[in-house]
Amino acid sequence: MTEIEYDVVVIGAGAIGENVADRAVQGGMRTVIIESELVGGECSYWACMPSKALLRSAALVRTARDVDGAKQAVTGDLDVAAVLRRRDKVTRHWKDDGQVEWLNGANIDLVRGHARLAGPKRVEVTAPDGSVTTITAAHAVAVCTGSAALLPDIPGLAEADPWTSRDATSVQEVPSSLAIIGGGVVAVEMATAYAGFGVEVTVIARSGLLTKNEPFAGELVQQSLEDLGASVTIGASPTRVRRDEGTGQVTIELDDGTSVTADEVLVATGRVPVTIDLGLETIGLTPGDWLPTDDSLRVLGADGGVFDGAGEDAWLYAAGDVTHRALLTHQGKYDARIAGDAIAARANGRTLSLTPWSTHAATADHAAVPQVTFTDPEVASVGLSAAEAERAGIRTRVVDYDISWVAGATIASDKYVGRARMVVDEDRRVLVGATFVGLDVGELLHSATIAVVGEVTIDRLWHAVPSYPTLSEVWLRLLEAYGRPTE
């Protein structure tokens, strides 16, 4: 057994782990990152990048067909094989040479293998050849192992060999029919993608679509999916799943007495942390659990360090999905930057402030998380929904506007469908949430994010003049609907 020491050990070389390691190195820490699969992680090979590549081509064709003058030029069908080839290019054919080269340039060492904690500040790595290396961290270990698809306990489901999001985004041959269990982001994005391929899609969503968003988001996405030819079943739950040995098809029995049969079934009902085989039991934590953290991303409750916020000697950090703070790559990278900076600062003897919006506090996780769901129409949101604001005890005013009425929408599409909502804290007269649904609304989101994070008052927002004719004009219309500024 080989033993080596680093200042910082990062477990998981996805986008989040890379950012923790990069910031630690910039802070003067000798850092190693450990990865059992591909450097670059879930987002690069099985999630964000391939899923958006699968969605893009059909979305462009639909957009062109909704603009007179362009629609006449669309004379053929979508080339699904070409879409899959483009997806393969985006994922670099599931090879991580470029990501490894980036690690080398950033002075981050790489060890390949499966990592398990073996006590405070100790990590054992089993290489593909079976050899074991023990790596000791002088200052900190950061867990960035992410999450995996949740497989619900439905009789027969596991035996039916269902797809998870990884299968849906890396498929090499598109099935004729696909049933999707779930109504969240993965479910509706993959339903949109596969319906765009001409696949017969059925979505089974017990509680509805995109239920964490404003209600109109799920309603507009459901209408769009049905317009694309997909079937959406709301209010029914699977009770049993079986795959026919002869035809290979999967049948899903529902509790309303009906059933759905398809070539494949995609399970998109949630995520679980990748911590089951991480050695958490050696440091007083429970294998398979999420890793809760403070706002500098120190893990709460680990043996061998102070974890009540009073001391500076806690050694275990976590960032990304595994913390269950916000299961989004961009938010995980935000946390990762804070974690890496905090590790380096504490190693250099600095006492850090965790007051809201300070340099080393991940405050945005609580009140200003942006997200774009790349359906057709897109759903873009940041901050609190109206219901969340109400539950938080905020005295709010909700303002809605039909985006199709702005000039930019008229230019963008002859069939524009969209809606905008802003949620205002009436006591402070600041925006606490915004949601946009429509073509290209993802490009509106960062302006809303800045307004929420910066706590820009409604009176000041009146002086942010939107360009004409763009979709950004919706900001002016929302403010006009809210009312003129105070004197």
Automatic annotation (TrEMBL):
GO terms for biological process, alphabetical: 2-oxoglutarate metabolic process
rRNA-binding among keywords: no
Top-level division of the source organism's lineage: Bacteria
Record-level Gene Ontology MF annotations: dihydrolipoyl dehydrogenase (NADH) activity; flavin adenine dinucleotide binding
Every Pyridine nucleotide-disulphide oxidoreductase dimerisation domain range: 369-475
Entry note: cofactor: Binds 1 FAD per subunit.
FAD/NAD(P)-binding domain span: 6-327
Binding-site list for NAD(+): 182-189, 270
Cofactor(s) recorded in Swiss-Prot or TrEMBL: FAD
Keywords of this entry: FAD, Flavoprotein, NAD, Nucleotide-binding
Family, per entry: Belongs to the class-I pyridine nucleotide-disulfide oxidoreductase family.
Name of the protein this chain belongs to: NAD(P)/FAD-dependent oxidoreductase
